[in-house]
């Protein structure tokens, strides 16, 4: 069984539900990431990931979407 870790990222630039949906879709499309939950009002995203490399991948995906992120 693969160990699952929980990440909380602070995301810049999310100002509406459309932004939150874009962030959610981007992370859900990343293999090894699951359980994505976005709170655009708090500028946070929570998700489960399988390896530390996926945490870096997630921040890269968000940056590519125009939403720079860092570990909260």
From TrEMBL:
It holds the Pfam family HMA. One of its GO terms (molecular function) is metal ion binding. InterPro entries: Heavy-metal-associated_CS, HMA_dom, HMA_dom_sf, MerP/CopZ. Residues 5-70 form the HMA domain. Keywords: Metal-binding. This is Periplasmic mercury ion-binding protein. It comes from Cognatishimia activa. The gene is merP.
